[in-house]
Specification:
221 residues; alpha+beta
Length: 221
């Protein structure tokens, strides 16, 4: 028997044994809850802001990437503009900024009090799509208008922002210093420290309306 015939015989024997070992099972049917969740995630990916908003579930990874990019920019002699505000330190690079809270002392380590938008958003759908000990992320949707709301613990807040060609302004939200900017996708962003938590808003609704929405954010009793 030649080597080639021997190899073919071994292959055929093992293939038949493998096929016989596989149980004859019916096609798996996913639960309605699983199908609903997958549909929701697919719809979110199709939205125009998906690639530009900060997915806070990936916050640590983004921050690490930011540090690596910052290092490479420094090597290329592109200095970061370090702007110190009352509640934040913003390291501004050519295409992004890293924002960190500098006032985390005596602030809650976990989400204890809940803050929500009280502005009239009748006609908007509401989706609390992420909630854990250190952040709550919600989305309001009305047609092509999206409003992303976030509540974050100060100690864990270090975020990478798309600020390419953006002018960062300081505004007041309910008496608190807030960072405002519009990114290169025409999304408006407001971030402020309400003394206990960092609150963030991002939307394509427009600057004036977004400021009104920010002013309406209150603790839920």
């Amino acid at each position: 028997m030649t080597n080639e015939i021997f190899k073919r015989a071994i292959f055929e024997a093992l293939t038949q044994e493998y096929e016989n070992s596989i149980p004859n099972t019916e096609e798996h049917i996913f639960s309605p809850k699983f199908e609903k969740e997958m549909s929701r995630l697919i719809k979110r990916r199709e939205k125009p802001y998906y690639k530009i908003i900060n997915t806070f579930g990936k916050r640590a990874a983004c921050f690490t990437v930011g540090i690596l990019v910052a290092s490479s920019l420094t090597i290329m002699n592109v200095e970061a503009l370090r702007e110190a505000f009352i509640k934040f330190v913003v390291n501004v690079f050519e295409k992004f900024s890293i924002v960190q809270s500098v006032d985390a002392n005596d602030s809650p380590e976990t989400i204890e009090d809940i803050y929500e938008i009280t502005y009239d958003l009748s006609g908007y759908s509401y989706d609390l799509w992420s909630c854990d000990d250190i952040s709550r992320l919600a989305e309001y949707t009305n047609g092509e208008i999206y409003i992303n709301f976030g509540q974050h613990t100060k100690a864990e807040y270090d975020i990478l922002l798309n600020t390419e060609n953006a002018d960062i302004e300081i505004i007041k939200i309910n008496g608190h210093e807030a960072i405002y900017y519009m990114d290169n996708h025409n999304y408006h962003h407001i971030i402020w420290d309400n003394d206990d938590y960092i609150i963030s808003l991002g939307s394509n609704i427009g600057k004036t309306t977004l400021i009104d929405i920010a002013d309406s954010v209150q603790k839920v009793e």
